[in-house]
Specification:
The chain is mainly alpha-helical. It folds into two domains: 29-151 and 177-206, Growth Hormone, Chain: A, CATH 1.20.1250.20; 220-409, MFS general substrate transporter like domains (Growth Hormone, Chain: A). The protein has helices at 18-27, 32-46, 54-60, 66-94, 96-116, 120-134, 138-148, 154-182, 184-205, 221-225, 228-244, 246-249, 251-257, 262-283, 292-311, 316-344, 350-378, 380-419.
Length: 420
Amino acid sequence: MSRLDTSGPLIGEPRPGRLRRYLQVRAGGLPGAFWVLWGGSLVNRLGSMVNPFLSLYLTGVRGVSLGDTGLVLTVVGVGSVISQPLGGFLADRFGRRAALTGGMLANGATLLTLGHARSLTVLVLACFVLGITIDLFRPAAQALVADAVPAADRTRAYGLLLWAVNLGFSVAMVLGGYLASHAYQLLFWLDAGACAVFGVLVWLAVPETRPGGRQRTAGSYRAVLRDRTMLAFAGIIVVYAVVFQQAFATLPLAMRSTAMSSSAYGLVMGVNGAVVIAMQPLIGHRLAAFDKSRLLATGFTLAACGNAVTAAASTTVVYGLAVAVSTLGEILVFAVTAAVVADLAPAALRGRYNGLIGMAWGTGFLIAPLAGTRLLALGSTTLWLTCAALCLVAALAQLALAPALRRQAARSASEGTSQS
């Protein structure tokens, strides 16, 4: 019998309603630990208000110059590159619960420190620690899903997490924009409170899922770095991350150069959240039936198309269309990337493997503003067509890497079966 019984109800049994069937196909069969993580992620993102408005806070409330603000934000980026490799080590060494809860509480404490900092020195130090703690939880969360969710359901599970994150972030942007105009300090308290709720919720309601229980796992980052297939995949993600981050690093500057307002940029970026919230439930449960590398290549190609449309954009509607196309690619890339890492990683090194892919994202985000602003100086068309070309290169590289990914995923699956 197949994993999902698609036959109709027995004679005399009530036929399940459409809403129930809809929810069962998209969200059914996932363990309770996953839903605690899902709910905690939603709460955490509902409170994620400081980072999007940090530059405005530094310049408007603390009186930091524009040049120094750029330095402070770069320091946050440097910290974020460290964040996930450290989080991956903690997740494998001390367990998923301890790493996730500890990371969330550390992030909350840092946010409160930053909200009360006055001198530039303290602001810089607090922002560096903020960069380190902001994603410290993520490798543990990704590894927890890989531990608790069967392989056939992981792509769907990671897609549902993406949906929760975008739903929470969309609400946070609206509420944060209002509070930024009236009560900046409340941003820090709400964000810190959401971190604490997430961390405590996982500590109280999620059992430890790390293979081996309380025993410390063997292995180190040297073992991860010897995995050439994983390193190649991480390199592809760096390329995509550089392009993805342009939506935040250079898109507002490009729109302003065509005399478009910041509200127009906000409207365009609102399309991103709307597309994820609308489309992920429609396609997320179908992705497991397709080859992951082909899905990733399709996602990169959609991103290329979106950037090509951006190169020709001059109105809010066309910019919105470009973001919508790119977001369809984002849905595929974010859900499938985490599932690929789960396939590749030995169970004892899932935290470190997720830490490495997190570092790839952070590296791309750090490169993005440096490369993007220089390309934008050559012209908006040059920037967006270069981004489109990079996405096509990533798609071709992913297809070339596909056979190695399939072989290693099959080997990891067989090793996991023999150990169980």
